Amino acid sequence: MQSLTFLLPIVPNGVNRSPGFLCLTYNFSCKKLNDKYKRNKSINFYNDDILRIDLERIIKKKSIIFGNLPYNISSQILVKLIKFKKWPPKFTDLILMFQKEVAEKILGKSYGRLSIIANYRLKHLNKFDVSPNCFFPVPKVTSTVIHLVPLRKVNYKINNIKNLEYITNLFFSSRRKMINKKINKIFNLHQINKFKNLNLNERPSDLKKEFYYQATEFYENG
Question: What secondary structure does DSSP assign to the chain, as a single string?
Fold first, then answer.
């Protein structure tokens, strides 16, 4: 039997604060939810900072995680899910809504760090745009819902996703410059020669995602 995990953004008393994870709070909308479902033992409410709470411990096996994420931290929430220690994870699906601009980064239409990190452990199955007219008040941005599933088998062995974050940040912090100076900061000539057909005059966006996975492997193995 599958379990549903709903990520619900909470704004306590109308103030922009940390969102909750299936919250129980005195914010009107959440209190209303709690009052309605408090006798339902299959629903658990948490009132916590979603960037701090231990989601990996809380969610159940075969969970489907879905929600309309707070756009200012949506990419951080996604990376938090990708960084679960046990992989494949307990969740089977992610169905999440992002600002369209962020969604394009995840899907690789706007190639960069987020798409590299997301594609290491997740596969995109489907997506659709959501018009601003679907909301009230009407926002100034278009939204996109993405359906992602965890990859059961990962081709590169990266021990810690934080190292992939470090490698991609190192290169993309100077995305318009050639990679020769950056790569020499972390690898010696022998290590650099292990990369096949690598052109040191290329820019970070010219390199395929596999380069960053391999670079992270080299970095972790010294």
Answer: --EEEEE----GGG---PPPBS--SSSHHHHHHHHHHTT-TT---B-S-TTTS-HHHHSPTTEEEEEE--GGGHHHHHHHHHT-SSSS-SEEEEEEEEEHHHHHHHHTTT-SHHHHHHHHHEEEEEEEEE-GGGSSSPPSS-EEEEEEEE-SS-SS--S-HHHHHHHHHHHHTTTTS-SHHHHHHH--HHHHTTSTT--TTS-GGGS-HHHHHHHHHHHHH-
